[in-house]
Amino acid sequence: MELLWGYLLAVNAAALAVMGYDKGQARRRGRRVAEKRLLALAAIGGAVGIWLGMRIFRHKTKHLSFVYAVPAMFLIQAFLIYYLTRLFPS
Q1: Residue 72 has what DSSP assignment?
Q2: Sign for the pseudo-dihedral over CA of 28, 31, 37, 41
Q3: Contacts of residue 73, Cβ cutoff 8 Å, sequence gap at least 6
Q4: Distance between CA 69 and CA 21 in Å, rounded?
Q5: What tens digit of pLDDT does each residue of 14-62 get?
Q6: Do 53 and 89 form a contact (C-beta atoms < 8 A)?
Q7: Apex CA 82: angle with CA 35 and CA 53, to 5°?
Q8: How confident is the model at residue 4 (pLDDT cuts 50, 70, 90)?
Q9: I need a surface site. Which of 12, 22, 38, 78 has the fewest CB within 10 A?
């Protein structure tokens, strides 16, 4: 289980950092991170990091794909984590 928590911490930290980077690039009109890549980060366990990035950086908050998909992914991930912790207690 420690491996799972370490993975989730790392992927969410990366997701938050990528959201901050993309917001900075948007302000500077630089090369952006593809929305598919941001949603993929959320899908592989980084939904909390993407959601925090949306709130902290006020980024992608008007995109319905983020407004609905990221919380849905979080709920699915939370259920899976709950199930795994019940299945494999530490």
Answers
A1: H
A2: negative
A3: 42, 43, 47
A4: 21
A5: 999 999 999 999 999 999 999 999 999 999 999 999 999 999 999 999 9
A6: no
A7: 30
A8: very high
A9: 78
Tokens of 64: 């319905």
**CA–CA dist 27, 21 (Å, integer):** 10
Q: Where are the domains of the chain?
A: 2-87
Tokens of 22: 């993309």
Q: With contact defined as beta carbons under 8 Å apart, do 38 and 50 qualify? A: yes
Cβ atoms of 5 and 17 closer than 8 Å: no
- For the stretch 65-70, contacts whose Cβ atoms lie closer than 8 Å and that sit 24 or more positions apart, written own/partner, are 65/35, 65/39, 66/35, 66/38, 66/39, 69/39, 69/42, 70/39, 70/42
Find out whether 47 and 74 touch, Cβ atoms under 8 Å. Answer: yes
For tokens 């980024």, name the residue.
59
